[in-house]
Specification:
heterodimer; A: mainly alpha; two-stranded antiparallel ribbon; B: mainly alpha; two-stranded antiparallel sheet; 11 helices; 4 strands; 4% strand; disordered C terminus
C-alpha cells in the first residue's frame, strides 16, 4: 500500500501530518534565528528560488518547453518593483499594487518572447530563450543612457520594503512577546505566497489546461489532432511561468533592497533549471525538494568545506563559490545521464524519459 | 566610406572566428542532430592553454613571435581534442537516443563544469597576451587592417578549405557524410559510426582550439568566461547559414560578423545615440530570432520536415 492510499484510508493521519509540518514551518524561523539571522535570510532566498523553480516547472515540466532565459522574467519583475518603489523616479507605490503590475509586465514579456518562437522545435527554442535572457540583461545594463531608467551596472538601491500602514517588513517588532525581525516577517510572507503558488500549481496540473500542456509535451501532433490549440496553450504556459517569475522578482527586490543586472545573468537561469531537473521535471513536490536542496546544500558547504580546508591545509584551496557551481553543473549532467526523470519523478514523465 | 570599410574589415575578422567555431556546431549537428552547447567552452580551453604556453615561451625564450604563437596553438589542439572527445563519450554518447532536451541539459552542465575547472586552473583573472606581435598596420582604401586581423582571416580561410577537402576528398569525409545521411545504414555498410562521431567532435574541437587562439590574440586577453557568448554567437551563425551545412556555417559566420560590426558602428547614428555600440551583443540574437521565424532552415539549409 503506498502513501496516497494510506492517507485515503485514514484521513486523520493525513491531517495530523499536515498539522505537524505546519507547526514545524511556523517555528522554523525562530530555531534558525538562534543559529543566526543569516540562516533566516538563506531560507528566504531558498523559498524565493522555490517559487522560481515552480514557475519554470510550468514551462519546462508541464509543457515540455525548455526555457533557458527564465531569469529574465524574474528580472522584469524585480526592475518593475524597483522602479515603482524607490528614489530612482521618486515613485513609492504600495507593494500590493506593484506586484500585480510586475506579474503583468513579466507576462507581457513572456508573450512577446513566446509568440514568434513557439513554432520552433525544442532545442532551437531553448537557444532563442537563452538569447532573449541575454538581451534583457544587456538592456538592464545599458538603459542608463540617454534617459537613466535602470541606473546601469550600478543597479537600483534603497528600494522600499513591503509595508502595510505603519507595519514595515524590514524592522523588528515585538508581537505576543516574541521578537519578529525583518527576515522572520518576510519568511512568513514568503511561506504564505509559496503555499498559494503550490496550491495554484496543483490545481493547474489537473486542470484542463494542465492536461493540455502534458499532452503537448508527450506528443504535439497528437495533441493538435485532439483539438488542442497548441500555440495558444503553449503561449499560456509561457505567460503563466513568466508571471510567477515576475512576482518572485518583485519580492526579491523588496527583500534585498538593492538590485543590479548581476542578479539576472545566465547562470541564474541555469541554477533554476538545475533545481527543476534535479527534483524531477513536472513533479511539483520533486521540484520543491530540488530547489531546497540546491539552495541549502551550497550554503551548508560554504560553512563546512571552507573551515575544513583551512584546518586540513591551512588555507582555502577551493572557493565555496566554485563548489556551488560545480554542484549545479554536475547535478545537471549526472541527473540527465543516470536518472533523467529526477530524484522524485512524476509518473508520466518517468515513462516518457525512459522508454523512447 | 572609410568607417564603412573599416567596419567590414573588423566584421570579417570576427566573422571568420565565428565561422570556424560555427563549423564545430554544424558538423556535430549534421551527424547526430545535437546542439553541442559546450563547444564554446572548448574554444575557451584552447585559448587558455595556448596563452599559458605563449606567455611562458615569450618570457623564457627568444623564439620569433610567429613560432611562439604556432607552438602555443599546436599545444592547445591536443588538449581541446581530448576535451571534445571526453564530452562526446561521457556527456552525449549515452543519450544518443534520449529525447532532445536531455543532451542539451547535460551540455549546459558540462559547460559549467568546464568553466569552473578552467577557473580553478587559471584563476578568475584574465590572461593577457604578451606584446610580441608587431603592431603593423596596412592601409586598405580609406581603412586599415592590422597584421593580426590579416592573419586571422587567412588562417580561417585556409582551415575552411582544409576542412572542405577532408569532408569531400577523404574516406573519413565519406564516412561522415554517410553517417549524417543515415547512421544505421552507414553502420551496415561498414562505417564505424561511433568512431566517425568521435572524429567529428575531435575535428570540431581542433578547429575550436585555433579559433580560441585567434579570438584571444585579437582581443589580447583570454578569460574563463569567454567561451559562453562566443559559442552562442557561433551557434547563431550556424543557424543563420543553415545548421548542418558546412558552407552555410562559413557564410553565416562571416555575415554575422559583418552585421555585428556594421550594427555596432551605425546604431548610434540611426537612433540619434539613444542606443550605442554597447548593444553590439544584441544583434546576434536578433539575427537568430529573425532567421528562425522567417527561414528556420537558414540561408543555405535544406528544408527539413519539422519534427515535434
Amino acid at each position: 500500500m503506498n502513501l496516497t492510499d494510506k492517507f485515503k484510508a485514514n484521513p486523520a493521519l493525513l491531517w495530523s501530518g499536515v498539522a505537524l509540518i505546519a507547526c514545524a514551518l511556523a517555528v522554523l524561523p525562530f530555531v534558525l534565528a538562534m543559529a543566526g539571522t543569516t540562516w533566516v535570510r538563506v531560507t528566504n532566498l531558498a523559498i524565493l528560488f522555490t517559487l522560481l523553480a515552480l514557475g519554470l516547472n510550468i514551462v519546462v515540466g508541464f509543457a515540455g518547453l525548455l526555457d533557458l532565459g527564465y531569469i529574465a522574467f524574474y528580472g522584469v519583475g524585480a526592475y518593475t518593483y524597483a522602479l515603482l518603489a524607490s528614489p530612482q523616479f521618486n515613485i513609492h507605490l504600495p507593494f500590493w499594487i506593484i506586484l500585480p503590475i510586475g506579474a503583468l509586465a513579466a507576462c507581457v514579456f513572456g508573450v512577446l518572447l513566446g509568440a514568434p518562437t513557439l513554432k520552433l522545435r525544442g532545442d532551437y527554442l531553448a537557444i532563442v530563450t537563452l538569447g532573449f535572457g541575454e538581451i534583457v540583461r544587456i538592456f538592464f545594463n545599458n538603459l542608463s543612457q540617454p534617459v537613466n531608467i535602470t541606473n546601469g551596472p550600478q543597479g537600483i538601491s534603497r528600494i522600499d520594503p513591503f509595508s502595510i500602514g505603519g507595519f514595515s517588513f524590514n524592522q523588528s517588532d515585538i508581537i505576543f512577546g516574541l521578537n519578529f525581525s525583518g527576515p522572520v516577517k518576510y519568511y512568513y510572507l514568503l511561506l504564505l505566497v509559496l503555499i498559494m503558488v503550490i496550491v495554484i500549481n496543483l490545481r493547474l496540473e489537473d486542470s484542463r489546461i494542465g492536461r493540455a500542456w502534458q499532452a503537448i509535451r508527450e506528443d504535439e501532433v497528437a495533441a493538435q489532432a485532439m483539438g488542442i490549440n497548441t500555440t495558444r496553450v503553449k503561449l499560456l504556459a509561457f505567460a503563466m511561468g513568466a508571471s510567477f517569475g515576475g512576482v518572485a522578482g518583485g519580492m526579491f527586490a523588496a527583500i534585498q533592497g538593492f538590485i543590479s543586472p548581476e542578479s539576472f545573468v545566465l547562470v541564474e537561469s541555469v541554477m533554476v533549471l538545475s533545481m527543476v531537473v534535479l527534483g524531477g521535471m513536472g513533479n511539483i513536490w520533486g521540484v520543491i525538494v530540488g530547489a531546497l536542496l540546491l539552495s541549502f546544500v551550497p550554503e551548508l558547504l560554504r560553512h563546512t568545506v571552507e573551515p575544513l580546508q583551512r584546518s586540513l591545509f591551512g588555507r582555502s584551496l577551493i572557493d565555496p563559490e566554485v563548489v556551488r557551481m560545480l554542484l549545479f553543473g554536475l547535478a545537471l549532467m549526472l541527473m540527465m545521464l543516470f536518472r533523467p526523470a529526477g530524484l522524485w519523478p512524476s509518473k508520466v514523465r518517468k515513462r516518457e524519459l525512459t522508454e523512447e | 566610406m572609410d568607417i564603412f570599410l573599416q567596419q567590414i574589415i573588423n566584421g570579417l575578422t570576427l566573422g571568420s572566428v565565428y565561422a570556424i567555431v560555427a563549423l564545430g556546431y554544424t558538423m556535430v549537428y549534421g551527424i547526430i542532430q545535437l546542439i553541442n552547447f559546450a563547444h564554446g567552452e572548448v574554444v575557451m580551453i584552447g585559448a587558455m592553454v595556448a596563452f599559458t604556453v605563449i606567455g611562458w615561451l615569450a618570457a623564457n625564450t627568444a623564439l620569433p613571435p610567429l613560432a611562439i604563437v604556432l607552438i602555443g596553438t599546436i599545444a592547445a589542439i591536443p588538449v581541446c581534442v581530448a576535451v571534445g572527445y571526453a564530452l562526446e563519450v561521457f556527456a552525449y554518447r549515452r543519450l544518443r537516443h534520449a529525447p532532445r532536451l536531455a543532451p542539451l541539459i547535460t551540455a549546459i552542465g558540462a559547460s559549467i563544469v568546464l568553466q569552473q575547472i578552467a577557473m580553478m586552473i587559471w584563476s578568475r583573472n584574465p590572461l593577457a597576451f604578451p606584446q610580441i606581435i608587431p603592431n603593423t598596420v596596412y592601409a586598405v582604401g580609406g581603412a586599415t587592417i592590422t597584421l593580426v586581423q590579416l592573419a586571422i582571416i587567412i588562417t580561417s580561410v585556409a582551415m575552411m578549405i582544409g576542412l572542405t577537402l577532408v569532408v569531400y576528398r577523404t574516406r573519413l569525409g565519406v564516412a561522415m557524410r554517410a553517417a549524417s545521411q543515415n547512421a544505421p545504414i552507414a553502420g551496415l555498410m561498414g562505417v564505424n559510426v561511433n568512431g566517425v562521431i568521435a572524429a567529428t567532435f575531435m575535428i570540431g574541437a581542433a578547429l575550436a582550439a585555433v579559433a580560441g587562439v585567434m579570438v584571444g590574440t585579437y582581443y589580447g586577453i583570454a578569460h574563463y568566461t569567454m567561451g559562453a557568448l562566443l559559442g552562442l554567437k557561433a551557434f547563431c551563425a550556424a543557424v543563420l547559414g543553415g545548421i548542418g551545412n558546412l558552407a552555410g556555417a562559413m557564410l553565416g559566420g562571416m555575415l554575422l560578423g559583418i552585421v555585428e560590426a556594421l550594427g555596432a558602428g551605425y546604431i548610434g547614428d540611426f537612433t540619434n545615440n539613444v542606443f550605442g555600440s554597447n548593444y553590439q551583443d544584441v544583434f546576434a540574437f536578433l539575427v537568430l530570432i529573425a532567421v528562425l521565424v522567417f527561414r528556420p532552415s537558414g540561408l543555405l539549409g535544406e528544408r527539413i520536415g519539422e519534427r515535434a
